[in-house]
Every structure is written in structure tokens, then in C-alpha cells.
Amino acid sequence: xxxxxxxxxxxxxxxxxxxxxxxxxxxxxxxxxxxxxxxxxxxxxxxxxxxxxxxxxxxxxxxxxxxxxxxxxxxxxxxxxxxxxxxxxxxxxxxxxxxxxxxxxxxxxxxxxxxxxxxxxxxxxxxxxxxxxxxxxxxxxxxxxxxxxxxxxxxxxxxxxxxxxxxxxxxxxxxxxxxxxxxxxxxxxxxxxxxxxxxxxxxxxxxxxxxxxxxxxxxxxxxxxxxxxxxxxxxxxxxxxxxxxxxxxxxxxxxxxxxxxxxxxxxxxxxxxxxxxxxxxxxxxxxx
Length: 288
Hints:
By secondary structure, the protein is of the alpha/beta class.
């Protein structure tokens, strides 16, 4: 009888040990292959609603953080954290290595391609329209803007293309009215007062300004081109870039990107604007 009790006790202890070890193995590492989880710092511009912004609780939100959180779920080898900062500080963070990913509807400009790397797949396709005074019918396409005054920054993807448009249309160039920071509080009154003709914008950003700030008397032209935007990474982050690329392909195929763009941007941009984007080969030259 004593021998039987001993056998039962040993068996119970063995079973408990197996259970304990199994439970530990399930919680030690969330990655499927047991590798260490790498912490990734994501920095985003804190005031570009609805694409990326800090909410009232100081949490980075918007379409782009939502996509990155979906990517993070597919990549157990990484753990993403998020921080809002000034636009000009983001490249510095990437080059110093204090951050690995930057987001703010970024495009593959010639200057950025020399300093940073990008996935092949865009995070979104974004239509661009001209903000014009309500009632105007003379600005319907990009070619209608020749000879008009356009408020713009003096750098960036959109400005580069307008400069190239000017080079191809001597005698009918766009007239630039430069500003230092993207601030609709300064831009829209000029258009309303007739001191400028237009400003090139993402419609989702325009709708936010109209709704949140109460602007009236303005309208959008039809879509004049579609811009592809990307997550931007530090020069040495080739493996992270490739992993993000694969995740973006999966999220596009399973409909997640379309659902997130509907939630944050009001429409499935990958369906609505795919044909326009594919047809505008001229606009892609700066990224090759």
C-alpha cells in the first residue's frame, strides 16, 4: 500500500511538472520560433488628422498608426511603440537610430531615397485635389492651374511635381505663394479673399478642417492626381522593411487595408483610386 501511494505521488508530481513547463513555454515568448522580440520605435507627426495625430490622451492615432498596429499583430518578432513629434524631428530620429519607422503620409522623394528606405508597397493611395473658392469652375484638372497662384511649401513631393509641370509648360507656369508650415488657418483665408487661387490637399484633411474649424465658402476640385504614400525607415532597417512589406501585401489581400481606410478616410482608397493611380505614369517618375 505504501508503495502504491509513492507511485501515485510521483506520477502527480511529474504531471504537475509537465503542466508547469508547458504553461511557462506558452508565456515566455510571443514569437512562434522563440526568438527575442525586438522593440521598434514609431514616430509620427502629431497633427495630421485623420492620417496621424495625438489624441486627447496623448496616444498616436489615425489611419497610419492603425495600419502599423495591424502589421504588428502579424509580426510577433517585433513590438511597436508610438510617439508623436514635430515633422522636422522625424528624419533626425531615424538617422540617429532612436526611431526605426516614421509616418506622416510620406512619399518617395528623390532626397528621401538618398537617406532612407521604404517598403515596395504603399500604406495608402491618396487622392489630391485643389482647394478653391466656392463657385469656381475654371480649375477642374491639373492642367487648369497654369498661370494661377497656388499656396505651397517650398519642398516636398507635391511641390516637386508642380515645378516639373512648370518646366514642361513655359509661359504658363504655376505661380507659387510659399508658406513655412502647413497651416490651414493661414491658407484658406487667402483663397477666400482672392489673394490665391488654390492649395493642393488631401480631401480627408480638407474635410477635417472644414468640419472642425468651421470654414465655409470653399470647395474641392475633382481629383487631380493620386499619391502613393509609405512608411519611412532608417537606412539599415532592411529586414524590418521586408517584413513590413510582406505584412502590407497580406493586409491588402485580406481586405484589412480597405477596411481601415474606410474607417479612417471614409472610403476604400485601394479600390476607388487604383485605376487612376495606374494610369498616371508621369507622376511616378520622381520615385524611380
